[in-house]
Design a protein that fits this description.
Order of helices and strands: EHEEEHHHEHHEHHHH
Oligomer: single chain
Radius of gyration: 26 Å
Helix content: 40-55%
Strand order of the largest sheet: 1-4
Shape: elongated
Low-confidence stretches: none
Number of helices: 10
């Protein structure tokens, strides 16, 4: 089906050795055999392969064929991980927000400044896919028009909090609590009814909310 065009092979580094033999034959001889057939067919296809693994290391370990490695490594393109190109985060956020707005029938307009700061600070071990999942989660959870810190996945939020070892745990919890209250306040009107909704979303009583507003000077 791809003959005359381009075939993209994702995660080529995870391909079993017996399949690598078949691919190398296609690349070297330009022929395939259909499943269940003994007849060979000529194909003219351009291969683009991608992997997150170090193929040269796999070659040394014997889990990736050296001849296939050199056949694929004609024009290598290295894409740095997301943590090394933080300038792309804002572009990707807009892209994924538009994608999931359309998919879920939402009309969210953007991200709060605190959320953007967290996303820029986070290390993103799961790369772009993790960012995409975070946006999908936030679009599902967010009740207001702008994605707030309350809709950021907990794992990302915890790892993005400032690591200040000189501060005791109680103070770190207080800082986070203040930030969470501040972000939730932005979602509702500055009225008694609005504060009731804030208290309800935070899972606290209205008197407790007023006490915290005074404590955090909000």
């Amino acid at each position: 089906m791809a003959s005359g065009g381009t075939l993209f092979l994702d995660e080529i580094g995870d391909m079993p050795l017996h399949m690598q033999v078949k691919i190398i034959r296609v690349l070297q001889e330009g022929v395939i055999e259909r499943v269940g057939s003994l007849k060979t067919s000529k194909v003219d296809v351009r291969i683009i392969a991608a992997t997150h693994r170090k193929l040269d290391v796999l070659v040394k370990e014997g889990s990736f064929r050296e001849d296939l490695f050199y056949r694929l490594n004609v024009v290598p393109i290295f894409v740095p991980p997301l943590r090394e190109r933080k300038e792309d985060i804002l572009v990707l956020l807009d892209h994924f927000l538009a994608q999931y707005n359309g998919k879920m029938g939402r009309d969210l307009t953007g991200f709060s400044d605190d959320v953007i700061d967290i996303f820029k600070t986070y290390h993103w071990p799961g790369n772009v896919r993790e960012l995409q999942n975070a946006v999908e989660y936030a679009v599902n959870i967010e009740a207001a028009d702008v994605i707030s810190i309350a809709s950021v996945p907990t794992t990302i939020l915890q790892k993005s909090m400032p690591k200040r070892q000189e501060k005791p745990l109680t103070e770190k919890v207080r800082e986070y609590e203040s930030l969470l209250v501040k972000e939730t306040l932005k979602e509702f009107e500055n009225s008694v009814d609005g504060k009731k909704l804030v208290a309800n979303k935070l899972g606290i009583s209205l008197p407790t909310l007023y006490r915290k507003l005074k404590e955090f000077k909000l």
